[in-house]
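Deviations from the work plan: none for this task. Representative record:
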Amino acid sequence: MKTRYKLAGMLTALLLVVVGIFSLSSNVSAAGEGKITGTVKLTGTPPHAKTIDMSKDPVCQKAHAGDPAKVETVVAGADGGLANVVVYISEGYSGGATAATNPVSIDQKGCMYQPHVVAVDVNQPMKVVNSDQTTHNIHPLPAPGAGNTGWNKSQPPGSAPFDVTWKAEEIAIPVKCNIHPWMHGYIAVVKGPYGTSDDKGSYTIDNVPPGSYTLTAWQEDLGKQTAKVTVAAGKPGTADFTFKAK
Amino acid sequence: MRIAHNAIFLCGMVLSLGMTMATAQNAGTSSGYPTPKGDFTPAEQRGHGLYLRYCFECHGVAGDGEGDTAPFIDPKPRNFTLAVFKCRSTPTGTLPLDKDLEDTIERGIVHSNMPSWRPLRQEDRADLVAYIKTFSARWKTEKPGEPIKIPAEPAVTADRIKDGQAVFKRVECWKCHGVEGRANGPSADTLTDDQGRPIKPFNFHDSDRFKCGSTDQDMYRDFMTGLDGTPMPSFADNIKPDEAWDLVFYLRTLQPPASVNKKEKEIAKQLGLKPINPNAPAQSDSNQQQNNQPQSK
């Protein structure tokens, strides 16, 4: 009788372990393997990036001494790579939020937003930092009715960074500083995996489960473009985008 | 002949009774205001009637702040469809309490076209708030924020006024309000509200009254909540309660002489308080810390 109980107990334990390993490994393969990469290019003549006059705040001006900051509405590299483009899955992804908990950050540095465009998952923490020796007020302005609420907080020099999250998908929330009227940026709140193009125009979207998707690339001035992409297990998908200068 | 007269009289009675009943039915409520459409609560219905009598000319029938008088008004009437309000007891980004909105209606907003609606009954103001809340879905999906706590006001001292001036410099109120509080800071000319319309910072030398109430407690609250929809941010993360009181006392010294700031003005005069110099190095922090100890006051 006792041995039968022991055997049953051991079998159950073994079963649990096996099920555990299976569910773990399937999670890993769903979340970890897939990847989408590509580049975003700009054709035509990039618009002239105007120099920003920061003379009203000596701290800001000093941060760019000898190399004045420029308006970042369209930032294109020498080889036509277009930066600050958010690429995200607009159709075909059913995984919900990626549960990304690594905080992305928006830094007020040199009286500019770094990065100029920050992408963040729904409910993913976003760290707000002021690295400047001047006061900024960070003032996101979500669209009414989109599900996010705006606020307006002061960050004097030396303030501790703080975390915020966004409840709803919104491409994209403008953010500004009332004290420094040239400071404009965007917070793109996406649902699921995303990538942002660097100054060469390259982007990578990690943690994409195998499947067929529609990707959308958003640029603040040039609008949106879509592309189809398929991701297979162990085989990353690729999708390139080309925006035409206005 | 007499029968005919009686018949006419009777007909008249019946007719007038019928008309009275019909009117009473149409009115829906005892107030006599027209019955609004939709599934309004009684309070919202009453508020709707009051709104159409007192508010729509500026705030618009749709509550969007685009009433007939709106083009001629600056600052613009509030757009209730956004559910963003300047005067709240709740943190930045959150909905106000009903009481905050009732207080705003009662007080009115000085330096704007919004008059005080003190002549209305308290119940009327509550009904108006109930109706105003029907303009935005935010009231259905969100709850008002937790009101900020305002600790008891300490006694004003010379140290507190000096410390308040140091806070004014440290958190850079002067960037917009100017080194003397004359609304001429380096950023004053470029300020815009959330709709991108030009807006001016408050000039402390103009008045001893503020938009969201004129008591010391109201001032304290303004720093901590910010005035949503305007460039005035919340300083809740950066000014400690004690420092906020210091700042209240310092700002009082800038305002025109009135009964509310008699003591502050007197102390400032004795101190020979000079406007801040933003380019001078900051006062030593340790000194400031020391002064912030409550026992040193």
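Residues 1-32 of chain A form one domain.
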